[in-house]
Amino acid sequence: TQYVSQPVSLENPVVSANGSLAVVYDAGGSDLYVLGQRALIWSTTELEGILSARLNRSGMLTVVTQASGYRGVVTVYNSAYEAVASIQLSSAFVMDAALSDDGRTLAIVTIGQQDGSFSSDLALYTLNSAQGTAGESSDFAADLTASLGGNVVLDLRHTDSLVWALGDQGLTVTDHQGQTASVSWSGQYLKLYDLSGEGFAVALLGKYRAGSQATLQVIDDSGTVTGSLDLSQQVLSLSAAGRYFAVLTGDRLDIYTSDMTLYSSLEGTQGARKVLLMEDGSAILISEDSASFYVPG
């Protein structure tokens, strides 16, 4: 059943989901849409140069935009999509930002140079939603800053108490006291990943950029590789949710628990190009022109 049909014009569409809500935006553009509850909840076409947009589990929205005179502006909206805080940064370029699921801590990733070399930093701010107004200068100061080294951050996840920052060189997990744990890809190429597991992330690594030989790693919230699996088939898609993760190859879907126990398998998945896993272990298989729902028996 189709619940929403919204004509849009997006040159570089990006979708980010969290729980029952999703945000769709035009990277580098001005249009943004929040969907959920079988409806278009909120939209705007007045943002300037959107770099990223993320929802937390409470429905609060964090948007990173470009702005004249600054190297990035981070705006936080409450669940009614009223701007409640704005942080303008001029010392380093803002790459991404995410609000904790409890709405109390804001994580901002910036890039700059240190001793002539590229470096990424993670800054944590305590957010009081009664402070700050979007578009006005604010006196927010970072509670702490943690170095992510030369890691180019590709994705970010912020739970109630942990910030997961996944990059081209490894994965870093930082708590709100600044304690950091990390795992390195050890010179391997990152092929696929998913940060959405309950207390874990999955990463597919290969010795070479091309080829089907790869190793699947499960990494827990202490930055420890808790399991690995060598794969010889081309992996088309990877998805994690709840205590499960799914691996889709050319003709097969395998669903595992986070301890790498095989939970369920489905053969004959030819045509499927992407898998989206649900928290109960069921999965949506998406092909070029259709989608099907798989419930493990």
Structural topology:
Elements: E1 13-18, E2 21-26, E3 32-36, E4 39-44, E5 50-55, E6 61-65, E7 73-77, E8 83-88, E9 93-99, E10 105-114, E11 117-126, E12 144-149, E13 153-158, E14 162-167, E15 170-175, E16 180-184, E17 189-194, E18 200-206, E19 214-220, E20 225-231, E21 235-241, E22 244-249, E23 252-257, E24 262-267, E25 274-277, E26 283-286, E27 291-294
Antiparallel strand pairs: 1-2, 2-3, 3-4, 5-6, 6-7, 7-8, 9-10, 10-11, 11-12, 13-14, 14-15, 15-16, 17-18, 18-19, 19-20, 21-22, 22-23, 23-24, 25-26, 26-27
Structural account:
The chain is mainly beta and 297 residues long. The strands form 7 sheets. The chain has a 4-stranded antiparallel beta sheet with strand order 1-2-3-4, with no helix packed on it. The chain has a 4-stranded antiparallel beta sheet with strand order 5-6-7-8, with no helix packed on it.
Low-confidence stretches: 129-137
Count all strands and give the number.
27
Element-level helix/strand string = EEEEEEEEEEEEEEEEEEEEEEEEEEE
Sheet of most strands: 4 strands, antiparallel
Strand content: over 45%
Average pLDDT score: 93
Tell me roughly what share of residues is in helical segments: under 10%
Shape assignment: globular
Number of helices: 0
Q: Largest sheet, order of strands side by side?
A: 1-2-3-4
N/C terminus separation: 25 Å
Rg, alpha carbons: 20 Å
Structural class: mainly beta
